[in-house]
UniProtKB/TrEMBL annotation:
GO terms for molecular function: zinc ion binding. It comes from Hibiscus trionum. Residues 51-188 are annotated as: Disordered. Pfam families: DBD_Tnp_Mut, MULE, SWIM. Residues 63-80, 147-163, 174-185 have a biased composition (Basic and acidic residues). Keywords: Metal-binding, Zinc, Zinc-finger. This is SWIM-type domain-containing protein. Residues 637-679 form the SWIM-type domain.
Amino acid sequence: MKMYWQVSENPFEVKALASDNDVLEMLSKLPRNHYVHIYLEEVRPYQSNAASVEPEMNADSNSEVRVDFSEKPSDDHNVDENIGEPETNDNLSVSSEIRVDSNSDSEDIDYEVEKSTTYESGFSDSEDDLEDDIVSKGVGDNMTQEGSHKPNVEGSDEVRVDSEPDSVNSESFHSLDESDSDGQHKKPRYHEFNTTVDISNPIFKVGLLFATKQVLRESIKMYSIKNRYTVKLKRNDNRRIQAVCKAGCPWNLWASPINFKEPNETWQIKSLIGEHRCLKEYKNSNMTAKFIANQYLDKFHTDPNYSSKSLKQDVFRDYNISVHLSKCIRAKNLALEKLHGDIKGQYTRLYDYLGELRSSNPGTTTVLKLDEGVFERLYICMQAMKDGFKGGCRPIICLDGCHLKGHYGGQLLSAVGMDAEDNLYPISFTIVEAETESSWCWFMEILKTDLELNNSHHLTFMTDKQKGLMESVAELFPHVDHRTCVRHLYNNFKLHEQHKGKALKDQLWRAARATYVREFEAAMETLKGLSSAGHTWLSGKDPTMWSKSHFSFKAKSDILLNNHCECFNKMIIEARDKPIITLVESIRSKLMQRIAKKRDEAEKLTGPLCPKIQKKLDNAFLLSQRCWPVRAGGAMYQVSCGPQDQHSINMQTETCSCRRWQLTGIPCIHAISVILMLEDRPEKFVAPCYSVSTQMSIYSHFINPVRGENQWSSEETQLSVLPPILRRPPGRPHKNHRRRE
């Protein structure tokens, strides 16, 4: 039998289909209606070979095959399936239409046409009669396992090849288990669920493979949430899973493992009814707090203060599902716990972390105090911070504490110094159960040994009037200059009913800012005229602890507030509600970044002084223009700044009767006026503790990074640390609950 195809609308213009190239030429010239007329010529045996190549179009010997292409295939699709040749019969009139649907990306098909040599054509029916006798038949019954057609023995049929991948037939699914070791490319049989791509919007099909049972369960949950259907697992065991929708809805999914004997076998969907007859809902039981925490984990990582109200709004915007605020609060707690670690579990790895901290930063001091295995106190001082303090910081240390907001509470005590630019320089910190005299003594005793502060004559401490702190300083550092924060002093001062009012406040601050004794006494006399009770109360406080007029010159600082510790407490505020290891690691990371940043800033400075000190000197230079210096002889000068405002300057000893130059190490306005009269630069008379070289020396020691938890070496010889015991706070519990947001 020979095959021909019609080239144009003229039924007598046909071409033979004798090779693959002929088939490709036919496909390339496919008309717009996707129909091609194919003619079959039946050659009877024992007939002469002189028959014409092109068949005669007789009405009774005509056979036509009509091919319907639903989509024109591309030129790079090859065809390799054989079309079976029908049985020959002299009296059989062949009329068939083959309809090929080429929407799929299945295996390429090559049509092979067997050539016949001694057959003669005979056409018995017209073209119209052939089209009326077409009978449709699916190709699935005529396909072998290898993909080739079985011979078609029926007289008239329409063969439809449907290569859509959505077919329920399991042979249309693909798996990722391809193997081309034998040199032949084999298509996989089943689709495999991709947890990276498909999980965002699962689409189920019969035969779909899942790596594990958990992946299948998660995909069903995501399908329920994404499509807003209440899907539940009616059966859920190691041999089967049945997912159903609400009562009255036909949607149903059955899945089971491919091999029950394997513990972690692949699961497959065996049957599926994908039709829903229920309405979509705004509430879904599958939208759990755990699911919300996993979906919005990145937002909590970017913004730990991401509120639960904002989370509720984002869930409704993204999924059109309404959730209760309490569920969002639980989701937030789960997300933060996943990001920052288990609150109780971190205590068990505390020894491992401290060992890693000491190995990555040699010389670092870590002291852990336990009470029968229960955590009590922790002291940490990085070696880089110790070296920086000894390398250029002034001998003044600020001490303060702050509350921890974590599950177990406690307090964090800190020791902070001052760098060359009057900025804070953290030295060490400790975590204690409460702020008591015992905890302060424990902290300062270790600090004294760690910084080698054996001689306290040159030291100055700035503290608040906190519990046990005054007694601890007096016991461990008997010869130290002790200052107290004036803001806390005024807070205690105004507690008395007779000590309130702005006039009293101004006079107290005037007495505190007085730089020489006579100015301090004048401010106290004015305060006595306003309130004798206030004067009596304030006179009972040692002026060496709160007034500049009685400060010594050892610290080269005239600060009245403990702002450096307050700034440090604010710097670590984001870490104060974290678990123990996350808290310490967050503080260490902030200190590491701060040192590197300050070092880079110092390297870019061009002048001899730090920018903040240079700005103070420039302001003093402007104010010095109202002063009139007069030389008294030798290195002595007299400076007048107005009525009853006259001071003496000694340029040899670099002192002024106002005591401001000696207190800070920066020339006062009186000294600058004399320096300008001598045609010199004020920068030369600034103390070296404010120079850029000192700042470089302070920040020349860096904190090394610490490896991740999975790389810590285990301290097997140490006992496991238990979390501290939760203690009931003193006093009556608050009646009104605290706001959780």
